[in-house]
Amino acid sequence: MSTAQEVYQKKTVKTLNVLRTDLNTVRAGRANAALLDQILVDYYGTPTPLKNLSNISVPDPRTLLITPFDPKSVGDIEKAIMVSNLGINPSNDGKSVRLAIPQLTEERRKDLTKIIRRMGEDAKVAIRNLRREANDDLKKAEKKGDLTEDDLKNDLDEIQKLTDDCMKDIDEIISNKEKELMEI
To answer: CA torsion 5→11→16→21, rounded to 10°?
Structure first.
């Protein structure tokens, strides 16, 4: 495997991981602490990730319980959740914040499915851009004389195989997330 292929493979793995992480933030009707991964709390003037300020637990399938390390930050956490576009209203008892995850409506499921498909398409575009960059690097290496014409052809074919595999993986990831959304 050439250096360009190794670099390409590492970047595609990173792209797939980003897609999985982004999909975890899509609310699927059941409580999942990953829903709160993108939320930043204004903590003493500094935007701080919520997971760094509190313990997040899932006491039952439809509830998230956020217990801040600093009880004074309960109001800031509640405000950050309300400002985020999660569509969940927090309730606070002075010591912790409770999020009741509502049942998804059919319309909301369809909207989320569109969002998920768009995320998948964005990941595919990123993979295609990575493929183009890798192919350009290989062609430059061949022009310099670092690669033979046969090696170039083999490497380009290998890059295409990796790309096809990534596209299948993306389709599978998106399909699984859609099934998760629709079964709830």
So the answer is: 160
